[in-house]
Amino acid sequence: MVLPSPRFRPSRRAMLRGGAALAVATTTVTASAADAVPGASRRAATPRPAGGGVSPADFPDVVWAPADASNFTVATRPHDHPVEFVVIHVAQETFQDTIGIFQNPSSDVSAHYVVASADGRTAQCVHDADIGWHAGNWDYNTRSIGIEHEGWVDEPAWFTDVLYERSAVLTAHLCESHGIPKTRAHIIGHNEVPGATHTDPGPLWDWERYLDLVNSA
Ligand SMILES: [Zn+2]
Question: For the chain, how many helices (H) and strands (E)?
Answer without folding.
Answer: 5, 8
